[in-house]
Amino acid sequence: VLLLGTMLWAPWLVLHGAPLAELSGDQDFQLFLHKNLEFTRKIKGDVAVLQRIVCDTFQLCKEEELLLVRQDLAVVQAPLEQCHRRTFQAEACFSQIRDGLRAYHGSLAAVLELLPGHSGLVETLQLDAANLSSNIQQQMEDLGLATVTYPAEGLGPLPAFSSRFHHQVGGFFILANFQRFLETAYRALRHLARL
C-alpha cells in the first residue's frame, strides 16, 4: 500500500497543474470517479425534487421572473471556474468542488427552515453533500494532491432574509445555484473519467 501510495504521489511532484492523465488508468481512481459520478447524479436528482416542491408550494418556478428580487438577496453561486475545460487543473477543481459542497451543506439550512415538512429529504441532501465533500478530500489526500482552500466569496453564514417572501426566493436560488454547481462538478468528474 505504501509503495502504491508513493507511486501515485510521485507524478504530482512534477505535474502540478496537469490533468490527471497519468492516473486515468488507475483502477482505484477510476472507481472513485464512477462512484462519485453516480453519487453526484443522485444529489442532483434530490435537488430537482426540492426544486419541484418549492415550485409547487410557493409558485416559484422560473428564475427569470425572480431576477429583480434576487438583487436584494445575499445568495451567491459557489465558484467552479477551475473546473472548466480551458482552465482545468485537477487539484484546483477538486478543491473548489469540495469547498462548494461544504458551502451548500450550510446554506441548505435555509431550505430546511423553509420546508420543515420535507426535513428528511433536506437533511439527506446535507448529509450527501458532506459525504461527497469528504470523499473528494480523501481522494485528494490518497493521490497526494495539494489541497487548496479558496476564499468563500460571500458563502459564509446564512443570509438574513428580510421577509418570508425573500426567504422563499432565497431558498429557490440556493437550490438553483446548487443544481448548476452540481452539473458543472458532474461534467468535471465525467471529463476526468474519460481521460
Automatic annotation (TrEMBL):
It is found in: Secreted. Coiled coil: none annotated. It comes from the Eukaryota. SMART domains: IL6 (SM00126). InterPro entries: 4_helix_cytokine-like_core, GCSF/MGF, IL-6/GCSF/MGF, IL6/GCSF/MGF_CS. Pfam families: GCSF. Residues 1-17 form the signal peptide. GO terms for cellular component: extracellular region. The keyword Lipid biosynthesis does not apply. Belongs to the IL-6 superfamily. This is MGF factor. The gene is Mgf.
